[in-house]
Amino acid sequence: MEYSRIEKILASAFVLFLLLGSINFLNELNNAIERPDFRDYESEYVSKELLDNQSRLLVMFKHFKDLYEEVKTNLTKANEVYIFKREEYRVALESGNVTEEIKNEYLRAKEGYEKAYLAFQAIERAYVDIEKQLNSVNKQIFSYSDVIRASMPYP
């Protein structure tokens, strides 16, 4: 299929028009006003103590979340050992082959499970408490968001 000279010129003019239009559009984008940093307005309206408290709680929350997961894993492992040793001890009792070693292993497994459970409960309470505190601080900071948005020069 052969194109005439006028069709080639019109196609070239159209491509040139699109190229110039896109360059103009990109120049206008570069000259656009950047959106203000929300943190600047946040620091103006939200007290520094509240923001510091939020950052401290975030660090503590992450730390306790890791501890919580670790203690939960330890509790699961201790529970598995305890169940195994309890069944081993029960079978030995029923068959009349209880040795001091089996009894001691069962008691150690039971004690290990109880310690792991107490540690889990303590960490879980602390984790939940810190999560509640963090949510409370986040709600307080979020309550300032309407004031902050109203003070921004544009949405």
Summarize the structure.
This protein has helices at 5-30, 38-45, 48-95, 100-143, 145-151. With 155 residues, it is mainly α.
How would you characterize the overall build of this protein?
The protein has 155 residues and is mostly helical. Helix content is 86%, strand content 0%. The chain has 5 helices and no strands.
SSE topology sketch:
Elements: H1 5-30, H2 38-45, H3 48-95, H4 100-143, H5 145-151
List keywords for this structure.
155 residues; mainly alpha; 0% strand
Secondary-structure element pattern, one letter each: HHHHH
Q: Tell me the radius of gyration.
A: 34 Å
Mean pLDDT: 85
Q: Between the first and last Cα atoms, what is the distance in angstroms? A: 53 Å
**Which band does the percent of strand residues land in?**
under 5%
Number of E-type strands: 0
Helix/strand/pairing class, anyone? mainly alpha
State the helical fraction.
Answer: over 70%
How many distinct helices? 5
Shape label: elongated
Poorly predicted ranges: none
Task: Give a short account of the largest sheet.
Answer: none
